[in-house]
Amino acid sequence: MTITEQRHFEESEAPGTAEAILRQAREAVPFLRERAADIEAGRRLPEDVVALLRRNGVFRAAVSKDRGGPELTSMQQTELIETLATGDVSTAWCAMIGMDSGIYAGYLEEAAVQEFYGDLDTPNSGWIHPQGRAERVPGGYRVSGHWRFGSGSTHCEVLVAGCQVFRDGAPETDPVTGDPVHWRVMVARPRQYEIVDTWYTTGLAGSGSCDYKVTDLFVPEEHSFSFRVPRRTGPLHATPDAILRKMSGVPLGMARAAIDHVRDLAHTRVDRESGTPWTASPRVQTALATAEMELAAARAAVYTSLEEQWAALERGDETTARQRTATALARYHAFRTARSIVSSLFDLVGGSSIYRDRSPLDRWLRDAHTMRQHAVAQDSILELTGQVLLGGESRSPFF
């Protein structure tokens, strides 16, 4: 993308349809590839990349239509993230987190929606699991805690924090479910927290996923929400897992980019020992065909499971155990398969793949290993889904 084209992206109004958002994401891929090394070196998204995501409508992708948003389906959101990941993985990761603004708005009272998410292109960040403590006080909560993995915290405009609620020093039960832990998500501005620069990592280095902390921050009741109490209807707010459904786009896009890179590389490579061109090498042919096969299978599982779940939610049906676990297992499989593909291609290319300034495979390999450590890609997902499939109750609110 030329400077002139980039200026056009930054100055134009954000697109308002899924088709336009997806088209502009595809057009932005070359620019993101050019910026990938700088994004990683800076350990955060630079201002021009954040501006591109904003102007391309990425942060508004999940905003409901009744608020004037495009309300992309979970499948379209996944495709959007997948497309961005073919350009730069850290950018896609931040986009995936940033567009949660549209989903979180569906759980807040209207006054809070206007205060925090009145601008449809608001980037969001934050760790929602109840790592913090929210002591109930008149009118709201006194919040203290230290949260990790604030992806996009270096550029976000809203920073959320998951907390366990206490009353008079004792844990409060959930008023909806009766669970012993009352989990609420606190919504505030990033300036109200101390951002702690801890993000020195193996991969996803450009995501700016810093820690953040606060002591005795007052959060009004209306600036908090529970995933148990949606205030909007529809598939994006029917179940809490809406924030997770699009995550598979990151590993799928990364694997796609890696395969395409090695296919292009094959036209210029010759085996040193045999003198065989890579395009004629059975070893290379088999490796690339295997990678394509594995990616196609993983991608099909992600999109078919999302489509079945979405159709059920659109009808207003309660999803079945099989439907709930299918999306979680497909997501887990996508992360695992993508890491395997990138690792195999890294080995195939050999010594030249280890240089950061010569090969994107080095970055993709590190990204693959880091993203695989996310909770949705851990082996515990197999235990949880297996428990549900055998008639048990899930310990996770997400499936």
From TrEMBL:
Pfam families in the cross-refs: Acyl-CoA_dh_2 (PF08028), Acyl-CoA_dh_N (PF02771)
Membrane-spanning ranges: none
Residues covered by the Acyl-CoA dehydrogenase C-terminal domain: 248-378
Keywords per UniProt: Oxidoreductase
Acyl-CoA dehydrogenase/oxidase N-terminal domain segment(s): 31-106
Name this protein carries in UniProt: Acyl-CoA dehydrogenase family protein
